[in-house]
What does this fold into?
Amino acid sequence: MKPGIGLIGRKLGMTQIFREDGRPVPVSVVAAGPCTVVQARTAERDGYRAVQLGFEEADSKELTKPLQGQFAKANVSAKKILKEFRIPADQDFPVGSTVTVELFKPGDRIDVTGTSIGKGFQGGVKRWHWKGGSQTHGSMSHRAPGSIGSSTDPSRVFRGHHLPGRMGNRQVTTQALEIVRVDKEQNLLLVEGTLPGREESIVFIRKSRKPPRVPAVQHPHAKKKPPSAPGAAKAQPATAKEKPAGKK
It folds into this structure.
């Protein structure tokens, strides 16, 4: 799929709305944009085409001098969050223009990238869903990893082994989420399902790169095999016994 511009937003929380047929849908509310184009990358100068978007107003006195100069050169107000989005050759967004939620419409599929909630240092049972040790009286290893050595050779623990450690607080992308409603007046996106990160966290929204996963459903007109009776032996096809040559 071709690259396309996206939006920077802030996750506000979750709520519930109802579709036209009355079914309730859990949705995440995102304040997406408006985003200002701060800088443009060109194929002739930079080797690729992209735009840098800015989100939420900032006090220029709190920024570094290089950033102050960048905003002054673009003749735009200072922004708190900056993010670069690749764009195809048939799209053009001049510096100073604004990108809003009108970029999306209900029914679109999007990929949302954010930072997952940090849970601190956790054991393997919570972090990797270990089954745990014996719970009987006298057991001294209920939630401990136990022996993880690999004998004399290679006499070390292999890299990537599931062990206790820091959980969460990493970049996560949730793909193929459906946009249920677009509020252009308040710059809100209502997205079905959950998004990575806690409330008031920053998320980056792009059009989905893959279609949603559809579970396999049997065709309604497909013939079903009748269930066999319990204990019934399978009937063997009758075959004619071949007579050896030379005998009648």
Residues 7-127+171-207 form a domain with the Double Stranded RNA Binding Domain fold (CATH 3.30.160.810). Helices lie at 43-46, 65-74, 124-128. The radius of gyration is 29 Å.
